[in-house]
Amino acid sequence: MPRSVNAVASRARRKKTMALAKGYFGRRKNVWTVSKNAVEKGLVYAYEGRKQKKRTFRGIWIQRINAATRQHGMSYSQFMGAVNAKGIKLNRKVLADLAMNHPEAFKAVVDQVK
Fold first, then answer.
1. What CATH class is the domain 8-113?
2. Model confidence pTM above 0.85
């Protein structure tokens, strides 16, 4: 009985990986074993990057809130403590957006917690 290799599915798998390697430099774009490793590594970095993006943005929001609260004579930690004590349900993303794009609304929030 002849050996079964399922060449159609194997070729499709390889084509999918090679398509993901498009734009890579050198052998990484056209040699199967090299591109397979490069694509796997790239997908790992992409997964980690999606997690790191959330951390980075939280830090940016904190810096923006801190800069805005210091203009009103408070520190970030004092402000966030007062916001939580007053029961204001605004997260850091919204507070940072208010501080950047709507300073008068942010001032109203600061005045409310003072």
1. mainly alpha
2. no
